[in-house]
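Propose amino acids for all 87 sites.
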């Protein structure tokens, strides 16, 4: 395998202070407010290297989507709270 930047981040070798680890097998890289009109993004990735989600074991894929769903719910809640605070 060629060097994979996501594996380096997931292992904690690079930018370990920039990630959150909601589980042992999944990590999240938040990238908030990259541009003035964007509220940002978050990458949800497995710690183990996979070329694509359909190559991942089903239980790992389920865990990635569960973390993504939880994050999405939190982002929507925060967005709604922020809108109420700002209006
Ligand atoms: Zn990788």
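Proposal:
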């Amino acid at each position: 395998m060629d060097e994979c930047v996501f594996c380096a981040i997931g292992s904690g070798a690079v930018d370990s202070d920039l990630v959150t680890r909601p589980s042992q097998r999944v990590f999240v890289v938040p990238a908030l407010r990259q541009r003035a009109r964007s509220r940002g993004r978050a990458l949800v990735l497995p710690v183990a290297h996979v070329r694509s989600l359909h190559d991942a074991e089903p239980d790992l894929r389920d865990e990635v989507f569960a973390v993504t769903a939880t994050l999405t719910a939190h982002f929507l809640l925060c967005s709604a709270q922020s809108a109420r605070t700002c209006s």
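The longest strand covers residues 26-31. The CA atoms of residues 81 and 87 lie 10 Å apart.
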